[in-house]
Amino acid sequence: MSSNLTSGSDAASRVSRVSRAVSDGWTMTGRNMAHVIRAPEQIVLYFTLPIVFVLVFGYIFGNAMAVPGDGAYREFLLPGVFAMTMLYGMGATGTAVATDVARGVVDRFRTMPVARSALLTGRSTADLLRALLEMAVLVGCGLLVGWQWHRGIGYALLALALVLMLRVAVTWVAIWLALVVRNADTVSLLVFPLAFPLTAVSSVFVAPELMPGPVGTVAEWNPLSATVAASRELFGNPGLGSGSWVTENAVLMAVVWPVLITAVFAPLAVRRYQRLGN
């Protein structure tokens, strides 16, 4: 009898801890979203770059850019801009986490009766909510410049879900980087050198089959390219690839890469977070 009571007590305790972690994580999400609302210039800043890319590449360089299958370049470009925006969003996440660490906010929360996981889950959830807002604006911008999906709303939503999966993955990379560096200025300086090569050697702006052989191969296996190729396939946009294995299985790779990145960097970020102050 006592064994059953102990087992029931342990189960209730676990449920209570999970419930508390979810509640505290949601509270931290609200805190982080409040910071976004109080600093709308950050949203404007991170929206400006992809919109500029759409206008410059879509209207100025677009007529000179080749698309496999002779499709419209703006329809080729927009899925790439969606994924690129998710990648560069790691800058805001990393800077916010590093700022909290540098100002002692993390240390103060660690001394309070708050679930230890709340800071990380709250940050990642807030980043996902902000990504949804960014995607809504970018989709609206794309529709205004002539982009559209051709395979129905179901496939379009699946494509956007894959793009958001990429955002979740790079969010954990950003959190880990911020916890390692602990300096907001340094994190913001590191993001561009890290993100730009991934964007340049990918299928965001140019199809990999139009690149020199080795560069095209690297671009095809780029995690960013997997999400872009899968999005183009699901949206029904041009530029689906050369027929290599990785491009023919773009949807699969668009799931595998974010899961793999998250599986590596989420534990690293959690371990680094646990070591803070030790």
How would you characterize the overall build of this protein?
It is a single chain. The chain is mainly α. It has one domain. Helix content is 78%, strand content 0%. The chain has twelve helices and no strands. Helix 4 runs parallel beside helix 7 (153-181) and helix 6 packs across helix 7 (153-181). The N and C termini lie far apart (42 Å).
> Order of helices and strands, N to C?
HHHHHHHHHHHH
Shape: elongated
User: Biggest sheet, open or closed, and with what strands and sense?
Assistant: none
Strand content: under 5%
Helix percentage: over 70%
- What structural category characterises the helix and strand content? mainly alpha
Radius of gyration, in Å, reads: 21 Å
What integer is the average pLDDT?
82
Ends distance: 42 Å
Number of helices: 12
Taken together, the total number of domains comes to 1
Task: Give the tally of β-strands.
Answer: 0
Enumerate the spans where pLDDT stays under 50 for 5 or more consecutive residues: none
Chain-wise SSE layout:
Layout: H1 2-38, H2 40-60, H3 73-88, H4 90-102, H5 105-110, H6 118-144, H7 153-181, H8 184-200, H9 213-221, H10 223-235, H11 245-248, H12 250-275
Helix pairs in contact: 1-6, 2-3, 2-6, 3-6, 3-7, 3-10, 4-7, 4-8, 6-7, 7-10, 7-12, 10-12
Summary?
This protein has 278 residues and is an all-alpha fold. It has helices at 2-38, 40-60, 73-88, 90-102, 105-110, 118-144, 153-181, 184-200, 213-221, 223-235, 245-248, 250-275.
Main attributes of the structure:
mainly alpha; elongated; 278 residues
